[in-house]
Design a protein that fits this description.
The complex is a heterodimer of chains A (about 475) and B (about 90).
Chain A lengths: L7 H9 L5 H19 L2 E4 L1 H16 L11 E5 L26 H8 L3 E6 L33 H8 L5 E5 L6 H7 L2 E4 L20 E5 L2 H11 L29 E5 L9 H16 L3 E5 L4 H19 L17 H12 L2 H14 L4 H25 L2 E5 L15 H5 L6 H6 L3 E9 L2 E9 L4 H13 L14
Parallel strand pairs in A: 2-3, 2-4, 7-8, 7-9
Antiparallel strand pairs in A: 1-3, 4-6, 5-6, 5-10, 9-11, 10-11
Helix pairs in contact in A: 2-3, 7-15, 9-11, 9-12
Chain B lengths: L4 H10 L6 H18 L34 H5 L5 E2 L2 E2 L6
Antiparallel strand pairs in B: 1-2
The chains are: A alpha/beta (about 475), B mainly alpha (about 90).
């Protein structure tokens, strides 16, 4: 049996019935990593030794008759911007190349408590800035469906690892689409929960009012399971919502009759590949056949979301990244005085995209430009929120493409930052409004996966998961695997 | 209004980034292209619109004022590029 392509719930069932041991599962996936990661390049740091220790502990607990939970003993991996005590966390940046955090992020603590076996840390765009994982300070990750293409970004390593059978599930972070866009490009399920649903304590900050951690999985059931473990109030994060967490797995029912789904026409605009549109429209038609009421609607300020985002996110980033000054942690490049030390350190430690965003953000916040750029963008953010509020007065959820295209080729957009920014067109408005959204596989174009994005009301992840699950029950897309030339 | 190379230099100083001559030219071009795209926002009248800095309706998030142990000093300093006598060490400031 090929253990590496089983879902977390399938593996969890096998483990609970003690048909396999956690050590055997861990071994199988580490073998898989050995076989394919040379080509996919998803991992920045591997922690096989610790993984085996965790797996042994789970096996021992089961041998004692304990029932350690549905995800116990299932191997997973983390985007390298989540702090892991004693294990280096680089954010794919030269700035943090050798940094070892003294604490675990809350999500890491919760996964450990649920018995997770961690295989390592995954590649990403440096400081989560990018849409292709080409901006990693170390090396680009490749799309398992076509190694000449990008996996998307910035959680490209996380998504590629799940798609290639190198981790059963992974966590990513989503500031403007960084979980959903690569999930779409690599044919897996990726969710950005409502802002505040999952604690950001221990996530290396990029844009604090937009960042959210979420699961990347092979199917919707796994997404519900993982979200259930990581969600919930955390006093260590002042923006964490103090709300009860529903039983997401119990919410998965194939029944969606009568549900009202809005289809915003602005998400099918210029730049959309016709075949991607066809695939997504067919998926929406399928939801209709299943009994949902789908209706075209409008979110009139959609076209302003991208320019507003690229002012708000860099402004927050320029402030958050001020902490990399060569004093407290990370790289230090000496200089003749302290200012020279700061400038040398930051110039050598940050890559071009990070510098570009710091420059953009510093400019937008600087004296004389604040009102014209930053404040204006925050006001436009209000208009975007209002669009969604009006839509959700009428609809239970919205359905759109996740990305306007399939995965593009490595290098194709690397020299043109604006073209790269446009690949997050369909995901960015959701972060601006703080809403939950997920991408799930809904078909193929040119042999490459296409994602359907479902957007929900704030804190209503359960409805999203339910509709995604119902759709998934009628399709086989999530079962297809890339051919990597190995069994 | 396009951003000049002198402004790029000023912003780089504010951001504590040292740019090479090539980077100055590249960032001037790229920031101009991006900012030109941002000008799209001026088409919208936002006179009476409140800004949204944050999506959650948060007001004064408090927790009980209870003393608890912080990170031990040696662990806080463990990642520092230079430390001395239990403190971060930096080049002379004054």
């Amino acid at each position: 049996m090929d253990l590496h392509y089983l879902t977390a719930h399938e593996l969890g069932d096998l483990l609970q019935r003690r048909e396999v041991s956690a050590v055997e599962v861990t071994e199988a996936i580490i073998d898989r990593i050995e076989a394919v990661d040379g080509r996919v390049q998803a991992y920045l740091t591997r922690t096989a030794e610790q993984a085996f220790e965790q797996a042994k502990a789970i096996d021992a607990a089961r041998a004692r008759g304990e029932k350690p939970g549905p995800l116990a003993g299932v191997p997973m991996a983390l985007k390298d911007n989540l702090c892991t005590e004693g294990i280096r966390t680089t954010c794919a940046s030269r700035m943090l190349a050798g940094w070892v955090p003294p604490y675990d992020a809350t999500v890491v603590r919760r996964l450990k408590a649920a018995g997770a076996v961690m295989l390592g840390k995954l590649n990403m765009d440096e400081f989560a800035m990018g849409s292709s994982t080409e901006n990693s300070g170390f090396f680009p990750t490749r799309n398992p469906w076509d190694l000449e293409r990008v996996p998307g970004g910035s959680s490209g390593g996380s998504v590629a690892a799940v798609a290639a059978g190198e981790a059963c599930y992974a966590l990513g972070s989503d500031t403007g689409g960084s979980i959903r866009q690569p999930a779409s490009f690599c044919g897996v399920v990726g969710m950005k929960p409502t802002y505040g649903r999952v604690s950001r304590y221990g996530l290396v900050a990029f844009a604090s009012s937009l960042d959210q951690i979420g699961p990347i999985t092979r199917d919707v059931t796994d997404c519900a399971l993982v979200l259930g473990v990581i969600a919930g109030h955390d006093p260590s994060d002042s923006t964490s919502a103090d709300l009860p967490v529903p039983d997401y797995r119990a919410a998965l029912r194939p029944e969606i009759k009568g549900l009202k789904i809005g289809v915003p026409r602005e998400y099918f605009g210029a730049g959309m590949e016709p075949e991607v549109e066809t695939v997504v429209r067919r998926a929406i038609a399928r939801l209709e056949e299943m009994g949902a009421v789908c209706e075209e609607t409008s979110l009139p300020h959609t076209e302003y979301a991208l320019p507003a985002y690229y002012l708000v996110a860099p402004a927050e980033a320029s402030s958050n990244l001020a902490r990399y000054d060569g004093v407290g942690y990370g790289l230090r490049v000496p200089g003749k005085d302290i200012i020279a030390m700061y400038m040398n350190t930051r110039s050598q430690g940050f890559g071009p995209e990070v510098k570009r965003r710091i420059m953009l953000g510093t400019y937008a916040l600087s004296s004389g430009y604040y009102d014209a750029y930053y404040l204006k963008a925050l006001k436009v953010r209000t208009l975007i929120r209002r669009d969604f509020e009006a839509a959700f007065a009428k609809y239970d959820l919205l359905a759109t493409p996740t990305a306007p295209t399939v995965a593009f080729r490595l290098g194709e957009k690397a020299g043109d930052p604006l073209a790269m920014y446009l690949s997050d067109l369909c995901t960015i408005p959701i972060n601006m409004a703080g809403l939950p959204a997920l991408s799930l596989p809904c078909g193929f174009s040119q042999g490459l996966p296409v994602g359907l994005q479902l957007i929900g009301k704030a804190f209503d992840e359960a409805t999203l998961l339910r509709v995604a699950y119902a759709f998934e029950q009628t399709t086989e897309y999530h079962r297809r695997r890339p051919e990597l030339g190995v069994a | 209004m396009p951003i000049s190379t002198a402004e790029v230099e000023h912003v780089a100083l504010l951001a504590r980034l040292k740019l090479s001559p090539e980077e100055k030219v590249a960032y001037t071009e790229q920031l101009n292209a991006i900012l030109e795209y941002m000008d799209k926002l001026n088409a919208l009248d936002t006179t009476d619109v409140e800004p949204t800095a944050h999506v959650l309706p948060l007001r004064n998030v408090f927790r009980d004022d209870v003393a608890r142990p912080g990170l031990p000093r040696e662990r806080a300093l463990a990642g520092a590029p230079a430390a001395s006598e239990g403190q971060f060490k930096v080049p002379r400031v004054v």
